[in-house]
UniProtKB/TrEMBL annotation:
<protein>
    <submittedName>
        <fullName>Uncharacterized protein</fullName>
    </submittedName>
</protein>
<keyword id="KW-0732">Signal</keyword>
<feature type="signal peptide">
    <location>
        <begin position="1"/>
        <end position="23"/>
    </location>
</feature>
Length: 109
């Protein structure tokens, strides 16, 4: 039984480390889902009730780039959702879809 718990702890630690690799900026992870098809197990990624096959890479509308692999479902923000933005004093962020610019704020708005 100790071997089982050691293996479980090791796999958990690896998944945490793997998430940290993708943890730069604004990222999230979901584990794989599985279902049975006859006598075999089918693995897939699920996000907002949509199913993705292993090996799928795509972007979702709220500015995230995602991929599904044997570890699970990983998404990282792009553009405006890539992470914290440093805005110098007297400036503002203007969003253009997923992209943005930092513009001088004239104070009248």
């Amino acid at each position: 039984m100790n071997i089982f718990y050691s293996l479980l702890l090791t796999l958990t630690f690896i998944m945490i480390l793997q998430k940290e690799v993708y943890g730069k900026g604004n990222c999230f992870f979901h584990p794989l889902h599985f279902s049975y098809a006859g006598n075999r197990i089918v693995y897939k990624c699920v996000h907002h009730d949509l199913e993705y096959l292993i090996g799928t890479k795509f972007s979702i509308s709220d500015c995230y780039r995602c991929h599904c692999d044997l570890s699970g479902f990983f998404c990282c923000g792009i553009g405006i959702n890539a992470g914290k933005i440093h805005i110098p004093g007297g400036h503002k962020v203007v969003q253009h879809g997923c992209d943005y610019t930092i513009e001088k704020h004239d104070g009248d708005e």
